Amino acid sequence: MVVVGGGIAGVSTVAELRKGGYAGELVLVSADAVPYDRPPLSKAYLAGEKSLDAIALQHPDWYADQQVLLVGGTVAVAVRPEVGEVELADGRVLSADRIVLATGGRAVRPAFGEVRRDAPVHVLRDVADADRLRTQLVPGARLLIVGGGLIGAEVASTARGLGAEVVLVDPLDPPLAAAVGTEVARWLHGLHAEHGVEALTTTVETLLETRAGVAVQLKGEPDSREFDAVLVAVGLVPETGLAEAAGLETSRGILVDSGQVTSHPSVLAVGDCARLRDHRRAEHWEAAQRDGARAAATILQSEPLPATAPWWWSDRYGLHVEGVGEMRSADAEHRTVVRGVVGEPPFAAFTLRGERVVGAVTVDDPAATKAVRRLIDRGVDVRPADLADPAQNLRTLLRR
Ligand SMILES: Cc1cc2nc3c(=O)[nH]c(=O)nc-3n(C[C@H](O)[C@H](O)[C@H](O)COP(=O)(O)OP(=O)(O)OC[C@H]3O[C@@H](n4cnc5c(N)ncnc54)[C@H](O)[C@@H]3O)c2cc1C
Predict the structure, then answer these.
(1) pLDDT of 172-187, one tens digit each?
(2) What is the number of the ligand 1 atom nearest to the C-alpha of 125?
(3) CB of 151 closer than 6 A to ligand 1?
(4) C-beta separation of 234 from 106 below 8 A
(5) Percentage of the chain surpassing pLDDT 90?
(6) DSSP letter, residue 41
(7) Quick check: CB of 8 below 6 Å from ligand 1?
(8) Which of 202, 215, 152 lies closest to 173 in space, CA to CA?
(9) From ligand 1's centre to the CA of 39, what distance in Å?
(10) 26-30/2-4 β-pairing
(11) Where are the alpha helices (DSSP H) in the chain?
(12) How far is CA 387 from CA 50, 135, 180, 335, in A?
C-alpha cells in the first residue's frame, strides 16, 4: 500500500489501516521530512508559541513502531495504477497493490499584477509559508490580508498579537455568512475593528512591488497604500495533478465514491484533494481525518465509520468558534434560533428545518457543539424554545 501525502488525511489512512489489522507493507510518501499539522500554522505556530516538533502529527518514532515506511522529503511524480507503480522525484519506483492519494491542496494565488516570486506577497499553506510570513510580523509592520475567511481572520488575530498593523479586505460584507449565518458572521467580522484591524469591504486591483514593500491599489480608493507584507488568503485549489496525469476522473477535486475509491478501483483519494461526487469538498481537518478512516475501512473491507454532520473549528482574538452541519439563512424552510446572546460568549446559533436542527455555530461552547452534532446525526425533533434556553441542558434533548 502506498499513501502519497503526509497531511492528516494520509497519516490517518496509515494509522487506521494498522489499527484495523492491515499486516502488509505500508509506505507513506511525504513532501515534508516529518508530517505536521496545519491548523497551528495560522495560530500558535505563527505566533511563535509552538515549534515544528510540537505540531508533528505523530512522534517520529511512531512510524517505525507502526511499521510504516516514511519516505519523507520527497514527492511522488507519477502514479501508474494499471501496473501498480508510484514514481518518486528521486527516481525510485515503488510497487503498490493499491495507492491512496492524500495530496491536499495549494493556496490560490490570483494574478494581482506583476510581483516577483520573492516579493513579500504570501500565501499560507505550509510551514515554509508560515516561517516566511512570521519574519515580517514585527511590531509596527504593515500587513494587508486579502480575504476575511477563516484563515485570513486567524492571521489578523495572530498578527495583532505580534504587534503588526493590519488591514483586512474582503468583497463580502460580512465574510463567512455562508458558513456561520449572517448575524454571527457580522459579529465575528466586527471583532477585527475592536482589535485595531482596519476591515474594509473591497478588493485589490493591483499589487506593485516597491523598494519598501508592496504598493496596493484597493478598489474605490484614490491612492495606493504601502504595506510591508501582503497575505493572500482566498481559498484552495485541490492538488489533482498526479490523478489527472494517471487518467483518473477529476472535477474540482479527485472524484471519489462513498468508500473514497476513485474512478480507478485500485486508487483511493482522501482529504482536501478529494471530492465525493455531487458534494462540495469539506476543506476541514476532521473531514480529512475521517476520509482516511473510511479509505482504510474500504481497503480492509470492514464496517465504515457511521456518517456524521461535518465539524470544524477556528480561533480568533481568544475566542473559540465551532461549526457543525450546515448553516442556512432564514427562508420559507429554515429558521435561525439563538441560544444566549450573539456577541456575549458563550452562545450558539442554530439553523432549523422544521423541528430538526441542520446546522449550528457556537462560540466558546464546545459542549453545545457536541450535543448538537448528536441531535443532527440522530434526526431528533426539538422545540425551538428548548434550544434557545441557555438553562436547558442540550444533552437532555437527545433523550426525546
Ligand atoms: C493555515 C491553516 C489553518 C487551518 N486551520 C484549520 C482549523 O482551525 N480547523 C479546521 O478544521 N481546519 C483547518 N485547516 C484545514 C485543514 O488543515 C485541512 O483541511 C487539512 O490539513 C487537510 O488535510 P490533507 O491531509 O487532506 O491535506 P494537507 O494537509 O494539505 O496535506 C497534504 C500533504 O501532501 C503533500 N503532497 C502533495 N503532493 C504530493 C506528492 N506528489 N508527493 C508527496 N506528497 C505530496 C503536501 O505537501 C502535504 O504535506 C487549516 C488549514 C490551513 C492551511
Answers:
(1) 999 999 999 999 999 9
(2) 53
(3) yes
(4) no
(5) 90
(6) G
(7) yes
(8) 202
(9) 8
(10) parallel
(11) 8-19, 60-65, 127-136, 150-161, 177-180, 182-194, 241-245, 285-300, 366-378, 384-388, 394-397
(12) 38, 46, 17, 12
Q: Ligand 1 pocket, 229 CB below 6 A?
A: no
Q: Is the CB of 43 under 6 A from ligand 1?
A: no
**Euclidean distance between CA atoms 274 and 377, whole angstroms:** 23
Q: Is the CB of 98 under 6 A from ligand 1?
A: no
| CATH number of the 318-397 domain | 3.30.390.30
Question: Is there an atom of ligand 1 within 6 Å of 42 CB?
Answer: yes
Task: Take atom 2 of ligand 1 and give the residue whose Cα is closest.
Answer: 39
The reported pTM is: 0.97
Residue 29 Cβ inside 6 Å of ligand 1? The answer reads yes
- pLDDT value at residue 42: 98
pLDDT, tens digit (0-9, with 9 covering 90-100), for 97-121: 999 999 999 999 887 766 666 678 9
| CATH superfamily ID and name for 121-232 | FAD/NAD(P)-binding domain (3.50.50.60)
CATH superfamily of 2-106+236-300: FAD/NAD(P)-binding domain (3.50.50.60)
Identify the pLDDT of residue 400: 65
- How far, rounded to the nearest angstrom, does the alpha carbon of residue 225 sit from its chain's CA centroid? 30
| Rounded Cα distance, 44 and 42, in Å | 7
Distance (Å, whole) CA 85 – CA 266: 11
Contacts 24+ apart (CB under 8 A), 300-307: 300/17, 300/20, 300/21, 300/22, 302/20, 304/258, 304/259, 306/377, 307/377
Instruction: Tell how strand 334-341 and strand 344-353 pair up.
Output: antiparallel
The residue behind cell 505563527 is 46
- Residue 3's SS3 state is strand
Nearest of 245, 236, 235 to residue 101 by alpha carbon: 245
Q: By the 8 A CB rule, do 351 and 336 touch? A: yes
CA of 288 to the centre of ligand 1 (A): 8
| Helix, strand, or coil (residue 161) | helix
